[in-house]
Amino acid sequence: MTSYLIFNPIAGKLRRNPGLIPAALETLRAQNVSVELLPTTGPGSAAELARRCVREGAAAVYVAGGDGTINEVVNGMAGSQMLLGVLPGGTANCLAVELGIGTDLLRAAKAAGSWKPQRIALGLCTPATGASRYFVAMAGAGFDAQIVRDVDKNVKKKLGKVAYWIAGFGASLRRLPELHVKSSEGESKVSFALASRVRNYGGDLEIAKTIRLSDPKLEMVLFEGRFAVRYMKYLAGVLVNQHRGMSGVHVHLVDKLELSAANGQPIYLQLDGEEFGQLPAQLEIVPDALSILTPVAH
Questions:
Q1: pLDDT tier for residue 216 given thresholds of 50, 70 and 90
Q2: Which residues are within 8 A (CB) of 146 and not within 5 positions of it... i.e. 6 or more apart?
Q3: Does residue 247 surpass a pLDDT of 80?
Q4: What is the pLDDT of residues 165-213, one digit of tens each?
Q5: Are 250 and 259 in contact (CB under 8 A)?
Q6: Is 217 helix (H, G, I), strand (E, B) or coil?
């Protein structure tokens, strides 16, 4: 059966180094991984390309791009038996880091021939209006989604992750809107709710410390506080791995959580680092939803 390589030509690494895809193609073929190239053409096209691959009975789809492109592909193949292989080509590469693949695209391509399939759960976000969407790494509401919304796309193209830090410092001067969170652990009022399937956040930090992709759970991490300056303390706690015991931070493993705005102000969502509408919404785990190729050591 045929396999494909879906790639996003304007993803950070691929835009800066257009020779990466031809080099990756050659490297994959040297590992006896034969693929046909499928470039994306704009927002939503990666999902449609993945659906086409499922319809055609492809053996596997490899994705070269960032977490947003991977999210699109996952939404085009969730529930199928088709295999997903990740080649890091974006800004944060959260999923590739979590899998132990790393951030070097050619090194990943060189190892791809030895990867083994693993069946994992996915997160699912269902907003009050609009269609549901899967997430493979994380969903966030409140403070971090506002940062994702505020990031200047031109600055992101030039500076990569630094653009998020710039947007974050800008947000630190504001008073934050709050949201209600309801789960099996009770109800809370917070300014940032994270439902994570991975330990790393943004490729650099570890906020959800106990979750594994093999776990059919969401690690819910909640942060209280209306003043964004409080997040400086939270960041310090994350950096030294002490945030779980901090006042105002709550961490639980859950199957589902319901999110709604607390004060009538718009509260935004992000899925796998990309903006995804507003609250209210429900986040839940969907077991046995995706077959992903992972390094043997994972």
A1: very high
A2: 171, 176, 268
A3: yes
A4: 434 555 555 688 999 999 999 999 999 999 999 998 876 788 999 999 9
A5: no
A6: coil
Residue 152 confidence (pLDDT): 47
pLDDT tens track for 256-296: 999 999 988 899 999 998 999 999 999 999 999 999 999 98
Q: Is 43 left (phi over 0), alpha (psi -120 to 50) or beta?
A: beta
Residues sharing a CB contact under 8 Å with residue 147, sequence separation 6 or more, in sequence order: 164, 167, 168, 171
- My answer on whether omega of the bond before 280 falls inside 30° of 0, hence cis, is yes
Cα–Cα distance for residue pair 115/159, rounded to 1 Å: 32
What is the distance between the alpha carbons of residues 82 and 53, in angstroms, rounded to a whole number? 9
DSSP-assigned letters across all residues of 63-92: EEE-HHHHHHHHHHHTTS--EEEEEE-SSS
Q: Which tokens sit at 165? A: 């830090």
Question: Beta partners for 84?
Answer: 61, 292
Q: Are 78 and 288 in contact (CB under 8 A)?
A: no
pTM for the model stands at 0.91
**How far apart (Å, rounded) are the C-alpha atoms in residues 40 and 10?**
9
DSSP, res 112: G
